[in-house]
Structure formats: C-alpha cells, structure tokens
Amino acid sequence: MHTVHEVSGTSWLTLTHTNYGKWAVTTKVKLRARRLWNAIDKGTDNEEDDMSALEAILAAMPAQYREPLGAKNNAKEEWEAIAAMRVGSDRVKKATAQLLKQEYATLKFKDGESVEDFSLRLQSLISKLRSHGVTINEEQAVSKYLYSVPATAMTDSGKLLLIEEEWAVPMKMSGKPLPVVVAMASVAARLL
Questions:
Q1: How many domains in the chain?
Q2: What's the burial of 81, exposed, middle or buried (CB within 10 Å: 0-12/13-18/19+)?
Q3: Smaller CB count within 10 Å for the chain: N or C?
Q4: C-alpha of 51 from chain center
Q5: Do residues 56 and 143 share a domain?
Q6: What pLDDT, on the 0 to 100 scale, is given for residue 106?
Q7: Taking the alpha carbons of 43, 72, 77, 93 in that order, is the dihedral positive or negative?
Q8: Are 170 and 161 spatial neighbours (Cβ–Cβ below 8 Å)?
Q9: 94 and 177 in a common domain
C-alpha cells in the first residue's frame, strides 16, 4: 500500500505551444514523486491512482485542452493523446528552426539598409533561433555582424568605423549620407 499525495495543492507547469519537452519531464517527475507514474506508464486498474494521475495532468493543461483530454478513459490514454498532439508541433518547430538557420546563414545587408537596422534584424533573428532551440553564441553573432558589414562602413585599411564621428569624414568626402553605427560593444550587447 502507498500514500497518494495531494495533487490539487501543487503548482504545475502549464503546457504551451513551445514547452512540451520541459513540461513532459517536469510532469513525469512530479507524478513519480506522488507514485502515480505507473498509472500512465503501464496503465492501472487502481481507479484512485488513475484518477489522481488524470487530475494532475489536467491541472497542467491550458483550459482549451481540459475538456477533450478529460474525456479520455484513463491517464495513459490522456498522456498518449498529449504526446501525439505535440509530435506535429515539434516537427513544425524543427522545420522552422531549419528555415531560420538558413536565413541566418544567408543574412546580408539589404540595399540602403542602415547598419543599425541590420543589427536589429540580426538580433531579432537570433532571438527567433533561440526560441526554436538553436543557440548562437556571442562570438558567432559578432562574427556574423562583422562579416556582413558593407564596405561603406569600413576604412581603406579594413577597420570598422564604430562611432558617428568616424562616419563624418567619409560622409563629407562622398557627399552621401551614411548610416550611424553604435560602438561595437553595444552592438554585441544588443545581439545577445
């Protein structure tokens, strides 16, 4: 005989569109701690364990999933339905991550784009990659930025023009407006 710990008084991580892996691990650990995981893993004839496991899973569900999942016959069916539902979204997430990686690999300045606008676009792309499980470290981000800088932002000796005052000389010589670039340290900080 074992003791079933109270489920309803516990805070449960709520399943979202992006956290299935974390949700599944956290929920499994909490169910194991309450000696309820066997009701899901192997199924059980013990109605008290099965209902406690069902209650725990529903406590971790967004409201729109509670009714259809609550109609399942047992906790094992409920868990399997959630896993099946999330497999499709995991595939979409992986496909999106691949597209974002390709976009990152081919990212270049657009005609007439300011360095600051490019920096913001790069920062946004890095954030999207992170939300899809792809990590771009500081060295990679700065390297991508530096390799993408247009020739107009470089001196003849290959040095990057970092501050507005450095842009003033070539701007006066060419007579064309050039974008303002912030110091490289602040660019790196914004990218990460």
A1: 2
A2: middle
A3: N
A4: 33
A5: no
A6: 93
A7: negative
A8: yes
A9: no
CB contact at 8 A, 35 and 46: no
Please check whether residues 8 and 79 belong to one and the same domain: yes
Q: Are residues 82 and 43 in the same domain?
A: yes
Question: Whole-angstrom Cα distance, residue 50 to residue 28?
Answer: 14
Residues 18 and 92 in one domain: yes
Those residues whose C-beta lies under 8 Å from the C-beta of residue 71, and which sit 6 or more positions away, are none
Alpha carbon separation from 129 to 77, 97, 135, 173 (Å, rounded): 33, 6, 7, 40
Asked whether residue 37 falls in the same domain as residue 88, the answer is: yes
Phi/psi of residue 74, each to 5°? -155, 175
Q: Which residues of the chain carry a pLDDT beneath 70?
A: 1-10, 87-90, 151-192
